[in-house]
Amino acid sequence: MSAKRSVGILSTGSYTPERVLTNFDLEKMVETSDEWIVSRTGIRERRISSPEQASSDLAYEAAKAALEKANISAEQLDMIIVATVTPDMSFPSTACLLQEKLGATRAAAMDLSAACTGFLYGITTATQFIQNGLYKKVLVVGVETLSKITNYKDRNTCVLFGDGAGAAVIGEVTEGYGFQSFELGADGSGGSLLCMPAGGSRTPASVESVEQGLHYLYMAGGEVFKFAVRVMNSATEAVLSKAGVSKDEIDLLVPHQANKRIIDSAVQRFGLSEDKVAINLDRYGNMSSASIPVALDEAVKAGRVKEGDNLILVGFGGGLTWGATLLKWCTTPAEGSK
Ligand code: UT7
């Protein structure tokens, strides 16, 4: 018997900007078609933040919703982790900016950079702090304003990405429930396949770097696709086996939303019916670290998740990175953990 505390998700919240960019809008911007985008990716539209909105603004809305749902005040938070590759600025961290907006005066705050796998790295990190007794409540936010680093003249990437934020309050839950297993991984040799080449210490911002378009997101789509199919399946298998749960016991798969064909390969591999998969990429495209928490929040709101369900959250992305968790759903705080 493990004496470890049971840690899980106490509540979720999400926010997506109002402005919708459809495939038909994109047809007027680059040489593409709704037919190509839908058949190759499954995406129909995505949300775009306003010029005034930065990542911390989106994160604030999602975080506020999650705190309200859990009936927790910002002052109760011990830590804030923001997973993003589109921070408001290099520093201070978006987590510090969010801490100030929320009035979470007691909370330690840091950003975490694991691209589309950021939310999974974030909840895994939060769990360690709670399991060892240092903290009781940790807010994890996956947020991206990818539209700000997308080149709307490049059809290879501009049809794929969107903006949004998803948040979760992590804390101690009823014994036996919550996160049952985690799997995280990285392969830095594939770093150049998905990156923003300039703006850091390797190639600081300059007139030349801007003229060369090096501040836009770059992706070698085909290679990332093959990697994604491979790790999505292996990471899912790893968390199932670590938790001693069979694929027939999966109640809901909440995958990273990069491409419907990548999700379909996992659905086939694990023999899942459509009602056991959370999909939102048709409406939001790929929101990187926000994709999984937004999909989870929508599934919860739609009544698709009930106590005791086995959820698998699985993602992959730049780094290259990947991660998964098996979560036995329960939002009831453990006795005495408030
Ligand atoms: O979240 C991080 C992880 N990201 C991912 O997992 C994304 C993984 N990759 C993908 O989802 C897919 O590789 C893409 C959606 C990016 C591309 O789909 P694909 O089936 O791999 O297409 P492709 O790259 O093999 O391109 C096929 C053709 C090319 O034309 P040629 O060279 O064969 O003449 C592209 O130029 O499709 C062309 N193409 C387009 N055509 C119309 C690329 N983008 C477009 C477009 N509209 N938007």
UniProtKB/TrEMBL annotation:
Entry superkingdom: Bacteria
The protein's Enzyme Commission number: 2.3.1.180
Subunit structure: Homodimer.
HAMAP family listed in its UniProt record: FabH
Subcellular location: Cytoplasm
Gene3D superfamilies linked: 3.40.47.10
PANTHER family: 3-OXOACYL-[ACYL-CARRIER-PROTEIN] SYNTHASE, BETA-KETOACYL-[ACYL-CARRIER-PROTEIN] SYNTHASE III, CHLOROPLASTIC
Family annotation (Pfam families): ACP_syn_III (PF08545), ACP_syn_III_C (PF08541)
Keywords: Acyltransferase, Cytoplasm, Fatty acid biosynthesis, Fatty acid metabolism, Lipid biosynthesis, Lipid metabolism, Multifunctional enzyme, Transferase
GO molecular function, one term: 3-oxoacyl-[acyl-carrier-protein] synthase activity
Pathway listed: Lipid metabolism; fatty acid biosynthesis
UniProt-recorded name of the protein: Beta-ketoacyl-[acyl-carrier-protein] synthase III
Organism: Brevibacillus brevis (strain 47 / JCM 6285 / NBRC 100599)
Gene that encodes the chain: fabHA
Gene Ontology annotations for the cellular component aspect, listed alphabetically: cytoplasm
